[in-house]
Amino acid sequence: MDISIIVPLYNEEESLPELVEWIERVMNENRFSFEIILVDDGSIDNSWNIIETLHSGRDYIRGISFRRNYGKSAALYCGFNVAKGDVVITMDADLQDSPDEIPELYKMIKDEGYDLVSGWKKKRYDSKLSKNIPSKFFNRITRIISGINLHDFNCGLKAYKSKVVKSIEVYGEMHRYIPVLAKQSGFKKIGEKVVQHRPRKYGTTKFGMSRFVNGFLDLTTITFITKFGKKPMHFFGVVGTVMFLLGGGIALWLIARKLYCISNGIDFRDVTSQPLFYIALVTIIIGVQLFLAGFLGELISRSSNERNKYFIDKEI
Questions:
Q1: Which of 39, 65, 250, 285 is the most buried (most CB within 10 A)?
Q2: Which of 54, 81, 79 is nearest to 65 (CA)?
Q3: Are 144 and 89 contained in the same domain?
């Protein structure tokens, strides 16, 4: 099969028939073998009934329905698990992503050898204050931290080699950082394509301002996991050791200064009456705790089933 198209959705009953018809037209015009996987993320409208109607007589349309709303990451993860196509395309269900982009995305994966191609909505129709400006800020921060030169990490329109989606685990709100997860798994040829962004035709956006706070927290998480997930002692141990040595050095200096004053008959303050001593004591305690946190992290990591999960690219 050439292409699997995964469409996560939540309360999109109005747009689904038009979207599926559009995808079918593009696929048939380009003579692709394909499947459409519609993942209903706990919709409370008529979306699932629409999916059942669309599936009738069309075996290439598949549906997955959640009992409740779990989020876009969960929907993508389940879609990735069941996808059978050589190339996997993800897109949103609100008609703001254009299926006309699919043939060129497919070509970039199959002919140009990209592992992942992310869409870039260079011209957007969203609110500049609530979406555009925060989005540009987080994209810039993610570029700096991850080293991946993309302008729009959160674009729903993406194309992947099949082995990419089978090698990554998307959870929480990590769908925003799928390129970072792909790079972590060894897929380094990541490209970008300017894609059309269409005005919303039906309904309203499902995302609020809280997504930007969650996005920052998820970026912090994925950055730590990417660099130190398999070696927590390299982070906690180093920071803990530095703090322990710093606090210990200050304490020894205070004690040595007191002994010097005593031996030379110089007036001095008791060590315990100086605020610097308590700062040194707290620094030592925090340093020990961080070191122990790294040690416990290593024990947990080494006993984890994921410890030796590596991604094999080729076999003979």
A1: 39
A2: 79
A3: yes
Give me the tens of pLDDT residue by residue for the chain, a chain 316 residues long: 999 999 999 999 999 999 999 999 999 999 999 999 999 999 999 999 999 999 998 999 999 999 999 889 999 999 999 999 999 999 999 999 999 999 999 999 999 999 999 999 887 766 555 566 777 778 888 888 888 999 998 899 999 999 999 999 888 778 888 998 899 888 999 999 999 888 777 766 655 556 666 666 777 776 676 667 667 888 888 899 999 999 999 999 988 888 888 888 888 778 778 889 899 999 999 999 999 988 887 777 666 555 444 444 444 3
Distance CA 269, CA 208 (A): 57
Cα–Cα dist 14/203, whole Å = 8
> 4 with 83: CB under 8 angstroms?
yes
Distance of alpha carbon 39 from alpha carbon 255, whole angstroms? 67
Q: Which of 175, 194, 228 is the last residue of a domain?
A: 228
* Residue type present at position 86: D
**pTM, two decimal places:** 0.75
Instruction: Name the H helices within the chain.
Output: 16-29, 47-55, 72-82, 102-110, 133-146, 162-165, 178-184, 210-228, 233-263, 275-303
Give the pairing type, strands 3-9 and 34-40. Answer: parallel
Domain enclosing residue 291, as ranges: 233-303
Packed helices 47-55 and 16-29: angle between N→C axes, nearest 10 degrees: 30
The radius of gyration of the chain from alpha carbons, rounded to an integer in Å, stands at 26
Let me know whether 217 and 179 are in one domain. yes
> Which amino acid would we find at residue 40?
D
- Measured between alpha carbons, how far is 36 from 226 in angstroms, rounded to an integer? 32
d(CA 94, CA 121): 15
**The residue to which tokens 């030169």 are assigned:** 149
Pairing verdict, β 87-90 and 158-161: antiparallel
Count of C-beta atoms within a 10 Å radius of residue 90: 28
Does residue 8 sit in the same domain as residue 147? yes
